[in-house]
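Field guide to reading this record: the first block holds the primary sequence, the second block holds the structure written as discrete tokens, and the final block holds curator observations. Each block starts with its own label. This record concerns Bcl-2 Bcl-2 homology region 1-3 domain-containing protein, catalogued under organism Didymodactylos carnosus.

BLOCK 1 — SEQUENCE
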Amino acid sequence: MSTLSPIENPQVLKSIQKEAIHIASYLSSCSPLYSSANSKISHHCQLMSRHVERLKYRHEILFTGLARKFDLECQQIATTTTHTNLTISNVFCQKLLHMYNYLFADKQITWGRIITLYSFAQFLIQRIQKQDAEQAQRIGLLTGQYVASRLAKWIMNNGGWESLENFTDDADKMNDTYHTLFAFAITCLGISLFVLFLVVR
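BLOCK 2 — STRUCTURE
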């Protein structure tokens, strides 16, 4: 009897996709989702959380600047358009999706970039959770679904979530991620509102 390799196994992919959403939910709530009976899954969440905290600490100034720019431009777009369904909440999620696409626009997927994606999502969630819990939940869901739909195959083909155990977020490995974020900060967030409006329509 032949067996499917991980790259061909839809069950493995489904499991990785499910875990991507669980990790986003864990980071959104900052509380354990699983009992001790699910310690293996919970370990992935906690491991990602440690990477996320280190990255947020290292790039707090950059994340803060990005978040403030997000807020400002979302409000400007929502208040200057006549589109009745274009709320600040919708604009925010569309711009966040735009950022995620930018991070992987060169088709290069790395653990550093995946960690960055989760890190910025949690940074945004922590900023708005008290004022707008519903929007914070939407950010977590959008992030988990993005990883599940766009990045799960790469994760599966690179050792699964277990390989995150071997990732070391040293300066060399995170260098491309930092430059990607910096480029995004000085280019995409500075483009005209007209272009951003085309993105979110």
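BLOCK 3 — OBSERVATIONS
Residues 133-157 form the longest helix (25 residues).
Residues 31-41, 191-201 have pLDDT under 50 and may be disordered.
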